[in-house]
Amino acid sequence: MAPVNKISLLIFEILDKVRKARKKEDKVRILKENESWALKDVLGGSFDNSISWNLPPGEVPYKPSSPESAPTDLRRKNTDFRFFFKGGPGDKLNRIKRESLFIGLLEGIHPEDAKIVVNMINKKKPEGVSRNVVEDAFPGLLRA
Fold it and tell me: Which of 2, 56, 109, 122 gets the most CB atoms within 10 Å of its CB?
């Protein structure tokens, strides 16, 4: 019997499952079972106080993609985060170019994942996820 391919959930779907879980150990298990760099980048960007975003805080003026036909997804575009945090290669970009790249990222991914990314740069934690849950799921991910 051939192994069944696991369907990868989008980041917002994973975080929704964590939000709905009642027990800490269930939340940790869900995060571990769905581990990806994109998920860890979002959690790190939201919870790690040593990460500062080189983008204006608040609402972002972008046009969300259609949920059923987003051109890409956050599991592919999370590598673009390097252009948006202070101290990264994006520091060399002028503000307009950096903000245009960010809007392009938001417009290319599922609209629910885009909301999570906007919350991340505003340091708004995902609902139902605590720092302790993140630290238990991914030890060493958060520095400060």
Answer: 109
CB atoms within 10 A of CB 103: 16
88: Cβ contacts below 8 Å, ≥ 6 apart = 54, 82
**pTM reported for the whole predicted model:** 0.92
Please give the torsion angle defined by the CA atoms of residues 68, 123, 89 and 77, in that order, rounded to the nearest 10 degrees. -20
Q: Count the alpha carbons within 13 Å of 27 in the hemisphere toward its beta carbon.
A: 20
Q: How many CA atoms lie within 13 A of 140 on its CB side?
A: 0
Q: Are 134 and 18 in contact (CB under 8 A)?
A: no
pLDDT in tens, 18-74: 999 999 999 999 999 999 999 999 999 999 999 999 999 999 999 999 999 899 999
Closest CA to 10 of 38, 45, 46: 38
3-state secondary structure of 35: coil
Q: State the distance between the two ends of the chain, measured CA to CA, in whole angstroms.
A: 46
